[in-house]
Automatic annotation (TrEMBL):
UniProt keyword Oxidoreductase present: yes
Protein name per UniProt: NAD(P)H-dependent oxidoreductase
Keywords per UniProt: Oxidoreductase
Superkingdom in the source lineage: Bacteria
UniProt similarity note: Belongs to the NAD(P)H dehydrogenase (quinone) family.
EC number, UniProt record: 1.-.-.-, 1.6.99.-
Gene Ontology MF terms in the entry: oxidoreductase activity
Domain (Flavodoxin-like fold) ranges: 1-214
PANTHER family: NAD P H OXIDOREDUCTASE-RELATED, NAD(P)H DEHYDROGENASE [QUINONE] 1 ISOFORM 1
Xref: InterPro entries: Flavodoxin_fold (IPR003680), Flavoprotein-like_sf (IPR029039), NAD(P)H_dehydrogenase_qn (IPR051545)
Keyword Transmembrane helix: no
């Protein structure tokens, strides 16, 4: 297995850095190939602008069209092209980061903004009244798997179904579904370390053991069963979920995850 780790934390002595290093040693010891993108150490340019597209940039700037033209003509900046090559190389992508203000650090969002260009990560396939492009389960990155390894400051109860911060699955849905599943990547259930600001040595040892186990199960872990866009669950062209497909009580983000199948139904595809 080939794994790309995209790591975003400014402190080399942080818990996030320890988890990233543990991922490298665990995977390499198991015979896997690993590459690491350390965004802070590499001084990654987070802000997307016209300089990313060279001669393909228009005036006024049109981010989607210009990024696609730069991708097609090979005029993206070298740092972006290198990251795209890493993504194409990888079977699995691990994102290691702290949850800051209900989301990923700005530098990691900037990596997404710049690397996931038009024609590379989106804007592909047929666009018509019956098919709105190849996305949400299809696309240029289909067949790859991704895992978020996230540290959060609060205890697990704060991120539960009735917790003050909201369910962790809901907080991560924009990343899981909107960034990763959109270009076709299968998304694994996240690895979350709660109470990260007050972790004792004993608690870290438990977290590290759990992290090692998750890493060694990357190839066999079932992905989140997000519904595919073009496989019959959504009305066209409105892309609203068809009535009657949800389980009782399913609502909001959870509507876009297929309910578990029963033995007499057989697996859903």
């Amino acid at each position: 297995m080939k794994t790309l780790i995209v790591y975003a934390h400014p402190e080399p002595k942080s818990l996030n850095h320890s988890l990233a290093e543990l991922a490298v040693t665990t995977l390499e010891a198991a015979g896997h190939e690993v590459q690491v993108t350390d965004l802070y150490a590499s001084n990654w340019k987070a802000a997307l602008d016209a300089s990313d597209y060279g001669p393909a940039a228009s005036s006024p700037l049109r981010v989607a069209a210009d990024s696609g033209r730069a991708f097609d003509t090979g005029t993206l900046t070298a740092d972006v092209s290198i990251e795209q090559e890493k993504l194409l190389w990888a079977d699995t992508i691990i994102f290691q980061f702290p949850l800051w203000w209900y989301s990923m650090p700005a530098i990691l969002k900037g990596w997404v903004d710049r690397v996931f260009t038009y024609h590379f990560a989106y804007g592909v396939g047929e666009h018509s009244d019956t098919k709105y492009g190849e996305r949400y389960g299809e696309g240029t990155l289909a067949g790859k798997r991704a895992l978020l390894s996230v540290t959060v400051g609060g205890p697990e109860a704060h991120y539960s179904d009735r917790g003050i911060n909201g369910p962790i699955d809901d907080l991560l849905f924009p990343i899981h579904h909107g960034i990763l599943y959109y270009p076709g990547i299968d998304v694994l259930p996240p690895f979350v370390v709660h109470g990260s600001d007050r972790l004792t040595a004993e608690e870290y040892a438990v977290a590290a053991k759990n992290w090692e186990r998750r890493l060694l199960e990357l190839e066999t872990t079932e992905p989140i069963a997000f519904r595919k866009q073009n496989f019959g669950d959504y009305e066209m062209p409105s892309l609203r979920l068809k009535e009657g497909l949800e389980e009782r009580g399913q609502s909001s983000f959870a509507l876009h995850v297929r309910p578990p199948f029963t033995p007499d139904e057989g697996p859903r595809v």
